[in-house]
## 1
Amino acid sequence: MNDLEVRELRYFVAVAEELHFGRAAERLGMAQPPLSRAIRELERRLGVRLLERTTRQVALTPPGEVFLRDARAALDAVAAAARRVRHAARPEPGLRVALKADYDAGLLPRILAAYRDEEGALPVELLLGGRNEQAPALRDGRADVALLTTPFDDRDLDTEPLLSEPRLVALPAADPLAARPVLAMADLAGRPLPDGTPAERDGAEPLPGHRPRRTGLDLAQVCNLVELGSAVWFVPVSVARRHPRPGIAYREVADLSPSELAVGWPQGSRSPAVAAFVRAAVGVAVGLGPLRTGV
């Protein structure tokens, strides 16, 4: 069998995601007949039926589901390679650091100061994003290194832990639970987190049929939801210290897992600038004492 082409993978992914040849052809900007022929030829060359077709529907076969996963990964790798090579070709090289704003445990200024003294340091470009956007940015070539908070997907990444810090629950100041200095997860049963998931599950897999209602909220929006009593929020102690608000009470939760901060980079990276940033981050973290819970 000849090597697969990126074009063929893109065609298959479009059909597999749309499960409709007409919509897939429209998405790809092409006519339906050549798309159908291309998929049939791909199946012939692979010797595997990827799709079940009837007059009413298109469905993935079990081999098709496996191929969809790998085809997506291959397309992502091609896109990441293109981004990295374009970044490497810029006349002024730099280091792209991805992080969620305020979720650096207060380390970033010290890490950057230490990094500037490292051999191989480059100018830093900060890429601020929302929750869980940093690991994908490393995989798809948008970032060179990242500060990651648990939980995160570490596929294809190398990481070094930096620190662990307690998390608190943010409640409306007038909430009866705020009168207690220490709570338990069971006390929060039935309360939603800002994305709508149950607080007592604390990041576990969602219940069957449940999808988060809100995504992409910034910190001010989250604080407003808490103040209005629409949600509770689990927050690292360093973030709570930075954002005291009269309408919010931060309380300890005895059985709430801590927040872990790590530095991560793509597996196989040979960048001296990335290595220098990792050294600086680990060195700063080693010099820290444990973070106390009090706000």
Note: The longest helix spans residues 62-88.
## 2
Amino acid sequence: MSHQFKPGDLALIVGACSVPENVGKICELIEMLAAEQISAWIDPSDGCRVQNGDDEPGWLVIGDGILSANGEPGHVLAMPRHLLPLNGDPVPEQQRVKEFEPA
């Protein structure tokens, strides 16, 4: 399933490749990073930027209790397929209407 995420959206982390401790945590989406892209976001704890070292795009997300792949608290890169949106309507309005129209 493909979601139309945007920065500022809230999501539930439902999967992980490298940090399974993050599964089940709520996060805020900050920035979509292409492979090898460096973020515009600066980590307030150390003043550094995050780089996506993976070969596919991922969302830079922040949240309480979230750990990065190297154990830093507060942020992680998450693949879009590992995120479930928490705000907004996951079902488009037209589809919802069609589902409830009498036959």
Note: Confidence is low (pLDDT under 50) at residues 93-98.
## 3
Amino acid sequence: MLYKLYLLAGLILLAVSLYQLKQSVDFISGSKRVIGTVTSLEEIDGAYSPVFTVTTKENGEIIYHHASASSPAGWSVGEEAIFLYNPENPGSVRLMSYFWLFSWAIFFMGIAIPLIIMGGGYYFLNPLTRWPVKSNT
């Protein structure tokens, strides 16, 4: 019975993963590339997180606080990186990196596939494991 829950959870997570993938691809296709420059480093519990100033094509500036931090600092002031942003929603800036664009889709897919294999395998192979019962009549 538990294998049915595995299969169901795997299919739900697969659907969530495909939805996240579609959201990421839609964001990439409707976004513009811009350059961002590290203007400062924030110290959070002994780790350093870069703060970027991203200049958009419309000459607006967006301050982007990167989500990851490291010790020692992985970025230095003055370094540049490529960002993507939606011109209709300038607050939707993302670092142009495979991980930062597709992380949730990969995460959900990585959990969904083993659940589908385990649950589906038991679901479809369970009838084959039953031995035929011979009657003595």
Note: The longest strand covers residues 32-44.
## 4
Amino acid sequence: MEKKLIGVDLGGTSVKMAILTKDGEVEEKWSIKTNISDNGSHIVKELGDSLNQKLTELGLDNQQFYGVGMGTPGTVNYEKGIVKGAYNLNWSKEQHVRDGLARITGLSIFLDNDANVAALGERWKGAGEGGANVVFVTLGTGVGGGIFAEGQILHGVRGAAGEIGHVTVMPENGYQCTCGKKGCLETVASATGIVRVAKEMAKEFSDVSELKQLISDEKEITSKKVFDLGKKNDQLAVAVIDRISFYLALALSHIGNMLNPEKIIIGGGVSAAGDSLLKPIVSYFEKMVFPVVRESTKISIATLGNDAGIIGAAWLALPDDEDQEA
């Protein structure tokens, strides 16, 4: 029997888990609620118990698996298997996740940051099409990213490589970011950032606009609403989408010019806007990059959705001598 993989995507509200073939095909998928009480001290045990229970239910033993790959929020020392600063898990202090989970399950454990594993998933089985040079950008509550270069995920000296959300795109009069500096991409291109831009632009917009009216009436606005109204040719919404697309293209052009990846993949909840987001980004990007980059680096929307994390996490457990191309 061919050995299998286990992928784990640890989030602040749920832990998604899956059993996959070594070729990255999902065979079984389940989830549990993330218990962040008591400083997140129950997370590793409950995760391990769930894995053990599932393997027992399916009649599988540890010898049938290469190991468990896991994506987690926070700063990850992937060599030592330690996580720190995952505040949405209440993990402010160092957590020895790899050793703890290995003790419970008896399996080999491989850790990396959640944005990195989502990048790996899209690169391996999604829009990245197995390329050796792929960048993934996720637009959600925040803006994250992962960089796969020359066949390897980039970590940097302190694990901070790929912090695309903190590329400065507004060097003057930028919005305050949670990271402590101003003008970050995250402040204008995340789901909350898009709403912030819409409200700011509404103050100066004088024409008729449903979006402006909703903002004036203090109705709840979402990034999805902005894109929906943009599709209806609401002129304020169109202007907002154009502005955030400019900021995104500016950040992506720096990445393109520095790394010249085959693909830059845009994922996360905001990416559900599809071509409404992609087309203006590509238009600006092509005007901002070096000619060779314009010809060779393509931007696309992610295809794996919520499965990117578990698929990319599973890839971590593949041994080096296995074919890791798509």
Note: Residues 94 and 173 are 36 Å apart (CA to CA).
